[in-house]
Amino acid sequence: MRLVVLGGGESGVGTAILGKKKGYDVFLSDFGKIKNNYKEVLLLHKIKFEDEKHTEDLILNANVVMKSPGIPDKVPIIKKIKEKNIPIVSEIEFTNQFTDAVTIGITGSNGKTTTTMLTYHLLKQGGLNVGLAGNIGKSYAWQVSEGKYDSYVLELSSFQLDGIETYKPHIAIITNISPDHLDRYEYKYEKYIASKFRITMNQTEDDFLIYDADDEAIANWLKNNSTRAKLVPFSISKPLDFGAFLEENNIKINTTNENFDMPTSQLSLEGKHNVKNAMAAATVAQLLKIRKDTIRESLSDFQGVEHRLEKVLKIQNVQYINDSKATNVNATFFALDSMTTPTVWIVGGVDKGNDYTELLSLVNEKVKAIICLGIDNAKLIETFGGVVDVLVEASSMVEAVRQAYKIAEKGDTVLLSPACASFDLFENYEDRGRQFKQAVQNL
């Protein structure tokens, strides 16, 4: 059996290692440059590979192709593979056949990284032998090839879910759905929503789907479609007979005979969106019978995720916050909503078809100045030019931070929450966040 892996990043290299271990004839091809550390791993495992090209003769003889989630369907090599009817799967789908581990799959437009990390923290503290993979950390395939864990918490993007056929998580979470990555879904929001709900398509009556009952897109899908999984809603706006909800600033979960409750004031993460993330993670822990005291402790000592509303430094009583992971409007909405002081907002980057108008009321209420950090800021200037007194442009992170330092006064917050992808000026959102932190530390 010949396995061809397209993409020499974390998921591609992990899949190649697992395929080799399971007896496949493996070839890995990357149209870009493979990083040296991954090349060394491939050489060590005696896996044949190429980079900066796709050699068709070595690819189109595959029995199965695993493509990395970042490769769109419209690239020529994918079209040719499809013409030959060679099955294309995702890393998650390929790996799934080689493990009996229980998986908790987490998707959503926002909050999935925090919810994934928080769920993993709860289960680990609860004594489960659990791994963390998917869109985060060491690849699922790589970890399964080492066979160390009985269960996994997987962060799953819509692109990863597009490549599944038989995979099913025992517990699925959909944190929320808002327009994102529409460029990959022919700008059709319903296609993107359907992609997210693939997470539950193979679930049975013995499985669970945890979801935000306050989310319009989720509620509409559930009204018009069905899943066999047991539905477990969470809400911060209404009491629920079954699920997780708020009652006088207490989180209540009544999914088992053992009811759980905890004051929101004891959560380590601030903001309404994090109350929801905590509800979703705690519901998983409840379903997997983690002790209530352990859940409470873990929710109150969780450290948060880098580049997600990460407090960097306070300088002259101005708080600098790194929210570089906010790559869409909805994520930035949560960030601005959680601001309690006048805010200098650094925004901009590669726009994925953003509609900034939904931020207008928050900007009006919370933002005193905007710094546009991108190559093309025309849309931002058009939307917010008349709303704030100060709007300036910056062509580098250092310049943006220096301008923010000049504008901000005692008691203000400087918030980097770009609402855009980072590829115009940075390698990725992590690089953008690290450059922000570095620039703040150098003030």
UniProtKB/TrEMBL annotation:
Domain of life of the source? Bacteria
Q: Which residues form the Mur ligase C-terminal domain?
A: 307-420
Which BP terms in the Gene Ontology apply to this protein? cell division; cell wall organization; peptidoglycan biosynthetic process; regulation of cell shape
Entry keyword set: ATP-binding, Cell cycle, Cell division, Cell shape, Cell wall biogenesis/degradation, Cytoplasm, Ligase, Nucleotide-binding, Peptidoglycan synthesis
Q: What reaction does this enzyme carry out catalytically? A: UDP-N-acetyl-alpha-D-muramoyl-L-alanine + D-glutamate + ATP = UDP-N-acetyl-alpha-D-muramoyl-L-alanyl-D-glutamate + ADP + phosphate + H(+)
- Name the Enzyme Commission number(s) assigned to this protein: 6.3.2.9
Q: Where is it predominantly found? A: cytoplasm
Positions that bind ATP: G108, S109, N110, G111, K112, T113, T114
Q: Which InterPro entries match?
A: Mur-like_cat_sf (IPR036565), Mur_ligase_C (IPR004101), Mur_ligase_C_dom_sf (IPR036615), Mur_ligase_cen (IPR013221), MurD (IPR005762)
What broad class of enzyme is this?
A: ligase
Question: Which pathway?
Answer: Cell wall biogenesis; peptidoglycan biosynthesis
Domain Mur ligase central: start-end pairs = 106-285
Any one GO MF annotation of this record:
UDP-N-acetylmuramoylalanine-D-glutamate ligase activity
* GO cellular component terms given for this protein: cytoplasm
Can you say where in the cell this protein is located?
Cytoplasm
PANTHER family noted in UniProt: UDP-N-ACETYLMURAMOYLALANINE--D-GLUTAMATE LIGASE
- Note the NCBIfam families from the entry: murD (TIGR01087)
Q: Which family does it belong to?
A: Belongs to the MurCDEF family.
Q: Which purpose does this protein serve, as stated in its record?
A: Cell wall formation. Catalyzes the addition of glutamate to the nucleotide precursor UDP-N-acetylmuramoyl-L-alanine (UMA).
Q: What is this protein called?
A: UDP-N-acetylmuramoylalanine--D-glutamate ligase
> What organism does the UniProt record list as the source?
Flavobacterium terrae
